Amino acid sequence: MPILKKDKKMTSDYISLTDIFNNSKCENRKKPALFIRRFREFLGHEIIVKSGRYYGGTWASPRITEYYKKWLIDDSNDLLDIRTHCQKESAALATIEQIKGVTLNRQFAVLGYRIDGYDESNNIAYEIDESHHNTPQNMMLDNIRQKEIISVLKCEFIRIKV
Questions:
Q1: Cβ partners under 8 Å of residue 146, min gap 6
Q2: Model pTM greater than 0.90?
Q3: Among the listed residues 7, 3, 11, 4, the one whose alpha carbon sits nearest the alpha carbon of residue 113
């Protein structure tokens, strides 16, 4: 299980990629900075790089952390996996924007969570569900998260499977 650290200045709980790297005993070519450089165009706002003694290092959302852990083990296919995932999510959100004629706020932060797309004018949250959302544990956590977000935003919540 990755090490979770909370920083009051952070908008949500992120996981330290630096700690994962240090515990993995992988070679230097697997450092978080190289992962970010290689996939920067696909990571969006789900990466935070902080300096400092206690909360320094590279931090990522749980979703990006899973990609990083896969990349540590085997980077041969993960480039394609990350690009495919990000392209699917981006394409789905762009399609919604075109059809509805709205601009979605991507990776909208609420209650320490990130919503894939939020239409503030119509108060609709869009969540793009990739294959990793289909496990029983993730489905349960997604339902809890969805209820919490709806209770705060009083919004309509739409899930789209890709």
A1: 127, 157, 159
A2: no
A3: 11
